[in-house]
TrEMBL record:
<keyword id="KW-0349">Heme</keyword>
<protein>
    <recommendedName>
        <fullName>O-methylsterigmatocystin oxidoreductase</fullName>
    </recommendedName>
</protein>
<dbReference type="GO" id="GO:0020037">
    <property type="term" value="F:heme binding"/>
</dbReference>
<dbReference type="GO" id="GO:0004497">
    <property type="term" value="F:monooxygenase activity"/>
</dbReference>
<keyword id="KW-1133">Transmembrane helix</keyword>
<dbReference type="InterPro" id="IPR017972">
    <property type="entry name" value="Cyt_P450_CS"/>
</dbReference>
<keyword id="KW-0560">Oxidoreductase</keyword>
<feature type="binding site" description="axial binding residue">
    <location>
        <position position="466"/>
    </location>
    <ligand>
        <name>heme</name>
    </ligand>
</feature>
<comment type="similarity">
    <text>Belongs to the cytochrome P450 family.</text>
</comment>
<keyword id="KW-0503">Monooxygenase</keyword>
<dbReference type="InterPro" id="IPR050364">
    <property type="entry name" value="Cytochrome_P450_fung"/>
</dbReference>
<feature type="transmembrane region" description="Helical">
    <location>
        <begin position="20"/>
        <end position="38"/>
    </location>
</feature>
<dbReference type="InterPro" id="IPR002401">
    <property type="entry name" value="Cyt_P450_E_grp-I"/>
</dbReference>
<dbReference type="Pfam" id="PF00067">
    <property type="entry name" value="p450"/>
</dbReference>
<dbReference type="GO" id="GO:0005506">
    <property type="term" value="F:iron ion binding"/>
</dbReference>
<keyword id="KW-0472">Membrane</keyword>
<dbReference type="InterPro" id="IPR036396">
    <property type="entry name" value="Cyt_P450_sf"/>
</dbReference>
Length: 531
């Protein structure tokens, strides 16, 4: 909000005519006054219609109109976790003029998001996602729960199914090999390397190859890589609350008049995003390689997917697919470096497989690597790439025990609270792959299974479950098995030779995902290679 306050003051000072300033401020005052009385009236009405239901616990300290926003702190998930521990597994937080209900207990989450999923699978309105990018009810990420969304999601589930993804095995393994080779070479050349851009480049290459059947970018210096990363970061910014203040604080809607925000979004979509995607889709159709585009073309008529919807779906796949796996891999490398004893156990298990089979394991071999699978699950639990689920919206009143979640309330789960709950996980503050050793199922299977068998909650719930789980798990598996098979992941060294470990307790909250702070590592070729 401080960013916007500064921008408002700066632009108001630039207005040439005082009457314009008086007009804007007068409008703000009028809207604020009207909002005050409307909110009072609505508050009286909602309290009087609760009937036999109790009010959902609400933390103290909400400020008129701003709600709890000023109280959320640097990492909102941490603050909300504290509130959950004080007020219980379901709480109501005032996000500006909106009511957000946070859920932090597995059975409660299952009841609200799965058992009553027909009522809680909507999406709250976001200017970028609903009005601009997803114009005409297109896409699956931001689109509300409707027929168009169901058609698009069915199509996406089809092209990202395990059977479909398995057809890209050679490609996924080849890109993993290239990434590991690059990290080893960069470490040998420079002594140590910041792996972030190379991991991101690899994740992006996999999306480009699977979605469009085209060769990936050669390095983070590749113009195509830079162009796509800029698009991804801009789309994530447009979807951020700071870029859409009028949704939470309608009184600030006048900012769009000053900054022409929507016009800039439209221009960016029409002149930057869609031209690039149109070119990539054309290349996919002309390529002799298999691709998700070709698979989508086969079923698009059946699911009423038009050409513009294909562009929207591919833009969502670029942003969601590349970013989540990138962040999860960063955390995995950080953890490997900090827990070298665990890294040695991973190497021992992978080495044993290689000795038996004469090759590095593939994702199809995962059942033979129980400790490795447990490591992947514990990594996602211990340091998830996101601390909240993507917000949903109640399409009708939702009843849970003695509470009622009113229609149009935003509802979401707090992944941080779920993953640090001592009732679910023994010693949740400790990194312990052993907690998952007795469950050999994949992350994909666990996420789609019974609630008492779920291992983590990164990929969502029910009808809104992430459709790309299988691809993400496959990608993580291929990269990490090749790393432990070929090299030791060691801390960077300072100028005087002291080891510098990645900080697992410091993070950057980017809104959609949560990154570790920048770090460097040494990917050192192992002395006793089995392969």
């Amino acid at each position: 909000m401080n960013q916007y306050y500064s921008l408002v003051v700066e632009n108001l000072n630039k207005l040439e005519k005082p009457e314009k300033l008086r007009s804007i401020l007068g409008t703000v005052a009028a809207v604020g006054l009207a909002t005050y009385f409307v909110k009072k009236a609505l508050g009286r009405r909602s309290n009087s219609t609760l009937g036999p239901y109790g009010e959902i616990p609400t933390p103290e300290g909400a400020i008129y109109y701003l709600g709890h926003v000023p109280k959320l702190g640097k990492i909102p998930a941490y603050t909300i976790t504290e509130w959950h521990r004080k007020y219980g597994p379901i709480i109501r937080v005032k996000m500006g003029v909106q009511d957000w209900v946070f859920i932090s207990e597995p059975s409660l989450g299952h009841e609200v998001f799965v058992a009553q999923g027909a009522l809680t699978s909507g999406r709250p309105y976001i200017t970028w996602g609903n009005k601009i990018l997803g114009e005409g009810d297109r896409g699956v990420v931001f689109n509300d729960y409707n027929k168009n969304w169901k058609n698009a999601r069915t199509a996406i589930l089809n092209i990202l199914s395990p059977k479909s993804v398995d057809g890209f095995d050679d490609l996924l393994q080849g890109e993993a090999n290239h990434l590991v080779n690059t990290l080893i070479q960069k470490s040998e050349y420079s002594g140590q390397v910041d792996p972030a851009e190379f991991i991101r480049c690899s994740s992006l290459n996999i999306i480009l190859a699977t979605a469009f059947g085209i060769p990936g970018t050669q390095s983070p210096e590749d113009p195509l890589y830079k162009e796509i990363v800029d698009i991804i970061e801009t789309m994530l910014w447009f979807a951020n609350v700071i870029a859409d203040p009028g949704v939470f604080f309608p009184i600030l809607s006048f900012l769009d008049v000053i900054f022409r925000r929507e016009r800039k979004m439209i221009d960016y979509k029409e002149n930057v995003i869609f031209p690039l995607l149109t070119k990539l889709v054309k290349q996919a159709r002309e390529s002799d390689k298999d691709s998700l585009i070709k698979k989508l073309d086969l079923i698009k008529d059946e699911h009423d997917i038009d050409e513009q919807n294909i562009l929207v779906l591919m833009s969502e796949l670029l942003a969601a697919g590349a970013d989540t796996v990138f962040v999860a891999t960063l955390w995995a490398f950080s953890i490997m470096c900090n827990y070298f004893d665990i890294q040695l156990k991973l190497q021992k298990e992978v080495d044993a497989f290689i000795s038996r089979n004469g090759r590095i394991p593939t994702f199809a071999d995962r059942l033979e690597l129980p400790y490795f699978n447990a490591f992947l699950k514990e990594t996602l639990r211990f340091r998830p790439p996101a601390l909240f689920s993507i917000p949903r919206k109640a399409s009708r009143d939702v009843v849970y025990k003695n509470y009622i979640i009113p229609k149009d309330t935003v509802v979401l789960s707090n992944i941080h609270t779920l993953h640090t709950d001592s009732n679910t996980y023994v010693d949740p503050e400790k990194f312990m792959p052993e907690r998952f050793l007795n469950d050999s199922r994949s992350i994909y299977a666990c996420s789609n299974g019974q609630i008492h068998n779920r291992d983590q909650y990164v990929f969502g719930w029910g009808r809104r479950m992430c459709p790309g789980i299988y691809l993400a798990e496959n990608e993580l598996f291929n990269t990490l098995t090749r790393v432990v098979a070929r090299c030791d992941v060691k801390p960077a060294l300072s100028s005087d030779g002291k080891e510098i470990y990645p900080n697992l307790n410091a993070l950057h909250d980017g809104g959609a995902t949560v990154h570790p702070l920048p770090f460097q590592l040494r990917f050192v070729l192992r002395e006793s290679l089995v392969i």
